[in-house]
């Protein structure tokens, strides 16, 4: 997720009385802060390490199962 500062565009026209600031995206600040809190909670600290380990183990078993099934059908005796 890119920082909010890189998504803010500031244009200053030749006439100094008119300035324009645009913020890209439609996510409100409360939704962004809620998502940020959840991601920080799940991706840092001991809970973050546990989530990464469980994700890695789950990914291993998915790949292992797909490989086993594929190998079974590829090397199946006729």
TrEMBL record:
What GO MF annotations does this protein's record show? protein homodimerization activity
What keywords appear on the UniProt entry? Membrane, Transmembrane, Transmembrane helix
Query: Which Pfam families does the entry mention?
Result: DUF4731
**What GO terms fall under cellular component here?**
cell surface; plasma membrane
Tell me yes or no: is Chaperone among this UniProt entry's keywords.
Answer: no
TM stretches of this protein: 53-74
In this entry, which stretches build a coiled coil? none
Q: Per its UniProt record, what PANTHER family does this chain match?
A: SMALL INTEGRAL MEMBRANE PROTEIN 1 (PTHR38503)
The protein, known as: Small integral membrane protein 1 (Vel blood group)
Q: What organism is this sequence from?
A: Cavia porcellus
Upper lineage is: Eukaryota, Metazoa, Chordata, Craniata, Vertebrata
Provide the gene name from the record.
SMIM1
